[in-house]
Design a protein that fits this description.
Layout lengths: L1 H21 L5 H22 L4 H23 L3 H9 L5 H12 L3 H43 L1
Length: 152
């Protein structure tokens, strides 16, 4: 069980690290971007292991990596997208997109629609998770700033 999580975390870390190199991220931010991807991948795999469906597991994974991206961006004084985009790569449903197109090319409309709807649902869960965390963090830091101005 734990070997499965370690393998997923390591592979997600390496994939995110590779895309960080591709996006020309430098220094400690490169390692941290890989770490964000690893955390998201492990949260995704743990959610699947404990019985969540694909959509919910992706949602949980993206919430974890979005929170970590927001926190690291403020600590490192970097844009959130530096960490978020690299961390998101392992969760993107690329296989679903490929299988949808393959079924459509072979003329199998029903399987193509089923796989396509599942893929779109996963992509929507990823987008909604990012939006939710971004909104929560923005509200939190806005309220923190207002309270600081009011009392200090």
């Amino acid at each position: 069980m734990s070997i499965l999580f370690i393998k997923m975390g390591l592979s997600a870390f390496l994939a995110s690290l590779g895309f960080g190199l591709l996006f020309n991220i430098k220094g400690k931010n490169l390692f941290l971007a890989g770490l964000v991807g690893g955390v998201g991948g492990v949260c995704y795999k743990i959610s699947l292991y404990y019985g969540c469906n694909e959509i919910l597991a992706n949602f949980i994974g993206v919430i974890a990596l979005s929170f970590l991206s927001e926190i690291l961006a403020r600590k490192c004084k970097s844009p959130v997208t530096t960490f978020l985009v690299c961390g998101l790569i392992p969760l993107v449903p690329g296989t679903g997109m490929y299988k949808t197109m393959l079924e459509a090319i072979h003329g199998n409309a029903i399987p193509a629609l089923n796989i396509g709807l599942s893929t779109i649902s996963i992509a929507g869960a990823l987008a909604f998770g990012i939006l939710l965390v971004s909104t929560i963090m923005r509200l939190y830091y806005h309220e923190k700033r207002v309270i600081r101005k009011k009392f200090f």
